[in-house]
Amino acid sequence: MIKINENYQKLQASYLFSNIAKRVNAFQQANPDKKLIKLGIGDVTRALPDACIKAFHAAVDEMASESSFRGYGPEQGYDFLREAIAKHDFQARGAQVEADEVFVSDGAKCDSGNFQEIFSTDITVAVTDPVYPVYVDTNVMAGRTGKWNKELGRYDGFVYLDGNKENGFIPSLPEQPVDLIYLCFPNNPAGSTATKVQLKEWVDYAKENKALILFDAAYEAFVQDETLPHSIYEIEGAREVAVEFRSFSKTAGFTGTRCAYTVVPKECMAYTEAGEAVSVHTLWNRRHTTKFNSVSYPVQRAAEAVYSAEGQAQVKELIAYYLNNAKYIREKMEALGYECIGGENSPYIWIDSKSDSWEFFDRLLNNAAVVCTPGAGFGKCGEGYIRISAFNSFANVEAAMERISKVL
Ligand SMILES: Cc1ncc(COP(=O)(O)O)c(C=O)c1O
């Protein structure tokens, strides 16, 4: 008899996006003439930078002739891309990362979801609340948690690190020892950013506890404040205790093109039952080469083009466009008397709705025909908040904010 992985039975259905879709459909059926403006999901709307498109086309042409055709590439990514990443994203900022510590992949969602596989199932995992749900669900699937606790609205077995108004959605260190810590800055959904001093505390904690930090920097390109870190490797000691996920999705509009990478420094260690140190780089290399067969050649060439002078200018312009949307949304919501986090170094604006998350969502949907994301969908601490995304055209953002201003 084929048996299932029982841990999947513990998973809570993702009510968030199905519930949003249900409410949006009902609204559209009742109001077929109203044009909805969607500021809910975190998908980009603008075209790929021209430099990427040119490189993409040229690489596709190379595939058309036998002399330049490429088959399977190196599982970890082509050297041309790994070297460009190490040089521009890290060494240029004073962070020590070598090309052979970069693992190119088809998404930070897969990487941040898969990385836990190389660790024991009896470790203690800390996640922030609110949280990007991938970190939670993949650990539930792996059997690192107990059941869903209805009363608490959380899984048993996780250590939840609460984000709230008092800490500005930058959770404090856990009170008990934990082994694996998921951090995401700039944060999805809360838009909060951690300073170097705050990250240093986490690095020191990880060193003291022989823990590992999985640092998701999918939104680093939105960091404008020069004092804020783009990478955890800007923090002294991080190479020993942190892995970093990056993505071209939000940086360069690759959500549909698919290219990302994970940095695993050679100093990073995890331990056997007997306390012997094992290289995380070696473990991840083994996992990655066994289960992954590299990103397509044209996509890697398109990603490489992000680092050309033309590409850098275009990416900057792309980010500035979304940040201008974010600034506009934040200013309008603040003028309406709502407290906001994010939108300055992040594409997300996290708004205290002063009411129930879903109630506020319904108000915006039914009265303004604008779709946002209820914060409660990202965890217990998200209750009372909504997330507005800046990924849309400025014309749509302007129209949405005008509608919202009239109904709030
Ligand atoms: C925090 C975070 N990490 C990772 C991802 C996924 O990135 P990718 O498109 O590279 O899979 C997202 C996407 O929304 C995200 O919000």
Automatic annotation (TrEMBL):
It comes from the Bacteria. Pfam families: Aminotran_1_2 (PF00155). Residues 35-404 form the Aminotransferase class I/classII large domain. One of its GO terms (biological process) is lysine biosynthetic process via diaminopimelate. It catalyses: (2S,6S)-2,6-diaminopimelate + 2-oxoglutarate = (S)-2,3,4,5-tetrahydrodipicolinate + L-glutamate + H2O + H(+). GO terms for molecular function: L,L-diaminopimelate aminotransferase activity; pyridoxal phosphate binding. Its EC number is 2.6.1.83. Its cofactor is pyridoxal 5'-phosphate. Keywords: Aminotransferase, Pyridoxal phosphate, Transferase. Signal peptide: none annotated. Pathway: Amino-acid biosynthesis; L-lysine biosynthesis via DAP pathway; LL-2,6-diaminopimelate from (S)-tetrahydrodipicolinate (aminotransferase route): step 1/1. CDD domains: AAT_like (cd00609). NCBIfam families: DAPAT_plant (TIGR03542). This is LL-diaminopimelate aminotransferase.
